[in-house]
Design goal:
The chain is mainly alpha-helical. The chain contains 6 helices and 2 strands. β1 and β2 form a beta hairpin.
């Protein structure tokens, strides 16, 4: 209240969104400017906009998308084509959600749900194939570890891991010279 009158508190306008240039984005994401431009070229990223000087400008959502792309590429080992498909499926899911809410027509709703299901099936196939490759790699690494353990056991007086092969190493060489 001011002077006996109710005064509505004014909220300050929101702060302008901070936009970054490509070199700043590269520094924050750990990607090269060349990689960022390439991602834009192949459709994985669309910058927020361009400055008056025609410089690319990126916002927080662009940074999050680039971090997600990098994680899929580096941590999960997805190809850029697979990443593009995953990102497109994610965008389609959002579009389908909006279309589904906007219609009451059962035929259209069925078509939307069918499209969404096909996309999810494709994602499952991609993820299962990746999981199968990783499981194979883990099994191979475990086999190598087991082989190394057998050699260590032999050094401790256990059976040789390759009884059908002639003994190798310095001890075998001294036995052969005797």
């Amino acid at each position: 209240m001011v002077g006996g009158k109710m005064v509505r508190a004014q909220t300050p306008p929101p702060a302008p969104q901070r936009l970054l240039r490509i070199n700043e984005v590269a520094a924050e994401t750990g990607l090269t400017t060349r990689a960022i431009r390439y991602y834009e070229e192949i459709g994985l990223l669309e910058p927020h906009g361009r400055s008056d000087g025609d410089y690319r400008q990126y916002d927080a959502s662009d940074l999050a998308r680039l971090s997600f792309i990098r994680s899929l590429r580096d941590d999960a080992g997805f190809s850029l084509a697979q990443i593009g498909q995953l990102l497109e499926d994610d965008a389609a899911r959002e579009r389908n959600r909006e279309r589904f809410r906007a219609t009451e027509d059962p035929t259209e709703r069925r078509a939307i749900l069918t499209d969404a299901r096909i996309r999810v099936e494709r994602q499952i196939e991609t993820l299962e194939a990746k999981a199968a490759r990783l499981a194979t790699m883990i099994d191979e690494a475990r086999a190598r570890r087991g082989h190394l353990d057998a050699h260590l056991a032999e050094l401790d007086g256990g059976d040789p891991p390759h009884p059908d092969r002639p003994a190798a190493g310095p001890a075998a060489g001294s036995k052969a010279r005797r």
